[in-house]
Amino acid sequence: MATRTEYLSISKRGIDFSSVPMRLFQKSKKLGIWDPMAFDLAQDKQDWALLSQVRRDDLLGTTTLFQAGEEAVTLDLLPLVMSVAKRGRLEEEIYLTSFLWEEAKHTEFFRRWLDEVPEIGAQDLHEYIGPNYRHLFFEELPTAMQRLLSDDSNEALARALTTYNMMIEGVLAETGYHSYSRQLEQGRLFPGLAAALRLISRDETRHIRFGVYMLQLLIQEDPAMWEVVQGRMQELLPQVLGIVGPPAPEEGPIPEGSSYDPDEMTEFAMTQYQRRMRVLERARTQTRDEVEEEVADELTEEFFTGR
Ligand SMILES: [Fe+2]
Ligand SMILES: [Fe+2]
User: Fold this and answer.
1) Which of 4, 98, 130, 295 could form a disulfide with 28 if both were Cys (CB 3.0 to 4.6 A apart)?
2) What is the mean pLDDT of each run of 10 residues along the chain (307 residues)?
3) SS3 annotation, the chain
4) Which residues surround ligand 2, an ion (CB under 5 A)?
């Protein structure tokens, strides 16, 4: 068992309150404390009763992917927490406590909505999970995260962060919010779900920023990490596009009256992908101060402050 020789918080260094993770933690304590049980779902129930069967199926499908995804990121975050703890990165670990609590609340919210609005009861929703989703969430994510339990290398950390924060939160989930917003007609329908999604997506913005920051530092310190990150992003892109893009021939055509537009979703996902890629690529030639300055500027923006 590893023993310690000192604790940062009682050393000369103390806690770095101006660091990015501590600043994100301050935001989380203000913006991440909403209660999934507090949303009024009465109008959502009425909207569900009037929705066509095809649109119900769309909404149940999207919500199933979010529900399973939130459970996955709740279950699979702990190895990252252990990894930063092992590295003695106190500020990162402090921030990750709010990150995990937020994922747990997201998991709670979606199940409450499924129980109370479509009233799924004992229905098993695994039928909505396709092969690409299964591969990404049942294999790639847990494998990349659990590798951190036995592999302390920067490469393992870069692969885990790229899988979790870049591809799943940064590309797939962001595209999912876009799809939801079409289905809820920009919040005109299902106001309870729409209100929760606004808060969930604001939490996710902090999660993604944390992951991007960790990756920027890894790449800035060792440009070889860029190859690892880029390779991992390219490796997972076909699976992400397989989830948001057109259905495979064996899945049959998109039914008449569906609000799902696979071409628009693919385009949206690709834009997110390229945007994330550019930020990380830039880190190859940035100094640590430049990375810190870039994050500091972003942290004053609206979605972080909740104004
Ligand atoms: Fe989440
Ligand atoms: Fe998240």
Assistant:
1) 98
2) 87 95 95 96 97 94 97 98 96 98 98 98 96 97 98 98 97 92 85 95 96 97 96 97 86 79 92 94 94 88 64
3) CCCCCCCHHHCCCCCCCCCHHHHHHHHHHHHCCCCHHHCCCHHHHHHHHHCCHHHHHHHHHHHHHHHHHHHHHHHCCHHHHHHHHHCCCHHHHHHHHHHHHHHHHHHHHHHHHHHHCCCCCCCCCHHHCCHHHHHHHHHHHHHHHHHHHCCCCHHHHHHHHHHHHHHHHHHHHHHHHHHHHHHCCCCCCCHHHHHHHHHHHHHHHHHHHHHHHHHHHHHHHCCHHHHHHHHHHHHHHHHHHHHHCCCCHHHCCCCCCCCCCHHHHHHHHHHHHHHHHHHHHHHHHCCHHHHHHHHHHHCCCHHHHCC
4) 169, 204, 207
